[in-house]
Amino acid sequence: MASDRPQVIPTTWQNPPSPIAEILDNPGSPAVSISPNHRWLVEFWRSELVPIEALAEPELGIAGFRINPKTRTSARSNPYTKIAVGELLNDRENRTTIDLPDDAKLTNFKWSDSGNLLAFTWIKPNGLELWVLNAETKQARQVTAPILNAAYGTPYRWIDEKRLLCKMIDETQLSAPIAPHIPIGPIVQENLGTKTPSRTYTHLLKNSHDENLFDYYTRSVLEIIELDDSRLGMRKCIWNAAIIDEAIPSPDNQYILLTTVQKPYSYQLPSGYFPRLIQVITIAGDPVYTVAEVPLIDRLSTKFDSVRVGRRSISWRADQPATLYWVEALDNGDPKEEATLRDRLSCLAAPFNTEPTKLWESEFRFRQVRWGNENLALVTERWYDDRRKLVWQINPSEPTNKPKLIFDRSLEDHYNDPGGPCLTPGPYHWQLLHFTPDNSGIYYAGKGASDAGVHPFLDIRDSQDLAENQKARRIWECQDPYYSGISRILTPDASQLILSRQSKTEPSNYFWLSDQTLTQITHYGDPAPQFSGIQKELVTYERSDGVNLSAQLYLPFGYVADRDGPLPIIFWVYPEEFKDAKLAGQITSSHHSFSRPHFTSVLFLLTQGYAVLDNPSMPIVGEGDAEPNDSYVEQLISSANSAIDYVVNRGIASRDRIGIGGHSYGAFTTANLLAHTDLFKLGIARSGAYNRTLTPFGFQGEQRDFWEATETYIHMSPFTHSAKIKSPLLLIHGAGDSNPGTYPVQTERLFEALKGLGAQVRYVSLPLEDHGYRSREAVGHALWEMVRWCDLYLKS
């Protein structure tokens, strides 16, 4: 039925009502970094939102990413504008602001090994400069002219206190390639019978001109830059111009693990899949050893545990001066292939002229290795299909010794998660397992989720027997009514810790815990005091099939259900897939956290008289051989019904004033619930995908392709069911969305379908915005649209 409400088509950016606009403009708290030597605390300040003109700067989308061609930096960055530094424990009230212009654009911060020097880059109109801050003198010095190249990969790394390894612009280049005015021929792509599926990507290469642009902007010269006062900024070239992906010095700084991108390129995949040459060179630039020649990675299946053949996950051992390690697939990288063993971990020490040493072989897919010392390392393997995770203790010096299984658990079981090992800088300043002073134990930190709440902890586990059945010794645990986590272990015996702590009423700040005495280090205030008094509650309820569900319930200041009656309420949703129904209901978020809205948060609606049910559990469970998505819609509806029953039975809401909304996969969920139920009176869907035939080689947690699960793809696509959407639907999408699978065309086509079918629908395209919205203008406008939509169709 046609609406008689007046149509509002703004031609300029709109500002949301008070106090939303004021909160958006409030300065937030800074980002914080603690130096490796635990002496310094540095604050990095910037505005959370950027002006729209920052997104309008020149950019080039190419090979799957976007750069600013004028500065050869990543496009759409939000640089810091101010730095303050002080001693971690002694300057708790007053930190020194570094003397820099107000319009500084600072990025790429990295501490030196000593922890007294902090390198960073400064984006200038014509390029990227390298600077170094001395934390002791509080002085920042320019090291180079604007000649760093950050268009591709990390622009620099520390070698030692006196040298940096930098990727510089190739100064022999002439001007950028110019696109031919007249095409020189057709664009031809061909496949000769090999299966080469790929997910949906943006900003890919399209023609030979794009290839030339990719070469031009990403080519770098590898140089060593001096920091000594007498040699400051002096340059030594050690590798001629190439597309350098990574250049990582060995722990002893005698070698460099160099990765360069090779041809042929792909028009179907981003640059991360392009061929690569991985080799070891000396610090002087002499080639020593070829580690791998990686071909174009275009034959992976859609299974999540698919990997390429050959050596991968190549890096330096953190406990040795110059020893490589890598992993190789034993099943051709194909999880569909039957195999007793899947991966092999090997290592090879300098001078790289012997046979590699086999350290370990896995039943499932290798995930990570944590090095401790020559006699102990922890290796993790996982398998997505059954969400299984195994952790092994190995002896790198005695690889023939039988590995010891220490954890065998489900990734979905948060209540029995023992946490992960803590790390600390070792002899070469690389991160190693953090042993107790006598080496008898290893520190483990975890989130501490349980039926009683979320209480992060610090344990000591026996380093000789880390097995799960061996009881750990707990030395610290978060206590209600706070939500705290460990930021640093300051002393070898862990008697002194740096904690980040927050509560429902106190924003996150850093504290020094010393012998059970707690001292506050930072004093950041409430970024949105207008939210003081907002009521927050973790609520639990049950789905009809017995699965436990939970949500964060927010109520306006001063609201009392018995006195004030039901409120209009918005559910903000994002479902998850599970393999175990019993584990799907575990609660993993603390109800003692400090909640304030940022960007386009639905919590802003609390200031306008709405209640919010944030992230109500919507588990999509597929136990055994069942695929979760085969019953996606049915489980979604059941979860929604249970959440509605809960808020209605409590008297917080009435069934005629409940709305639904979400972002990305939550938008997809919103459209599905509107198509398959009449439970909700409106929908707000931001940056979603609605037609799964446009993502035929998998999406979210779906590993099957469209032709393997045609019925599921079609049934899950709300576009297919557009004619059943009767509630008013607000669609918002960033016009430059680069997220795989959520092209703006997804929203455009749904809008066209709904408009053609006579639905009440509004489509807002935000110019220059990506998958998440970052400009003050677009964020404010999106919130204005959300408030207006709710006022029209939910409150009145």
The number of helical segments is 10
Based on CA atoms alone, the radius of gyration comes out at 28 Å
Widest beta sheet: strand line-up: 39-40-43-41-45-46-47-48
Uncertain residue ranges: none
Alpha-beta content class: mainly beta
What's the end-to-end separation, in Å? 18 Å
Number of strands: 48
Largest sheet: 8 strands, mixed
- The percentage helix is 10-25%
In what range is the share of β-strand residues? 25-35%
What global shape is seen? globular
Average per-residue pLDDT, rounded, comes to 95
Overview of the molecule:
- With 796 residues, the protein is mainly β.
- The protein contains 10 helices and 48 strands.
- It has an 8-stranded mixed β-sheet with strand order 39-40-43-41-45-46-47-48, with helices on both faces.
- Helix 6 (632-649) crosses helix 7.
- The two termini are 18 Å apart.
- The model has no long low-confidence stretch (mean pLDDT 95).
Write the layout of secondary structure elements.
Elements: H1 20-25, E1 31-34, E2 40-45, H2 52-55, E3 60-62, E4 65-68, E5 73-74, E6 82-87, E7 96-97, E8 106-111, E9 117-124, E10 127-134, E11 139-142, E12 156-160, E13 163-169, H3 208-218, E14 219-226, E15 235-249, E16 255-261, E17 276-282, E18 287-294, E19 311-316, E20 323-329, E21 343-349, E22 357-362, E23 365-373, E24 376-383, E25 388-394, E26 404-410, E27 420-421, E28 423-425, E29 431-433, E30 441-446, E31 449-450, E32 453-454, E33 457-462, E34 473-477, E35 483-489, E36 496-502, E37 509-514, E38 517-520, E39 535-542, E40 548-555, H4 561-564, E41 569-572, E42 576-578, H5 581-584, E43 611-614, E44 619-621, H6 632-649, E45 658-663, H7 665-676, E46 683-686, H8 710-716, E47 729-734, H9 744-756, E48 761-766, H10 776-795
Parallel strand pairs: 41-43, 41-45, 42-44, 45-46, 46-47, 47-48
Antiparallel strand pairs: 1-2, 2-6, 3-4, 4-5, 6-7, 8-9, 9-10, 10-11, 12-13, 13-14, 14-15, 15-16, 16-17, 17-18, 19-20, 20-21, 21-22, 23-24, 24-25, 25-26, 27-30, 28-29, 30-33, 31-32, 33-34, 35-36, 36-37, 37-38, 39-40, 40-43
Helix pairs in contact: 6-7
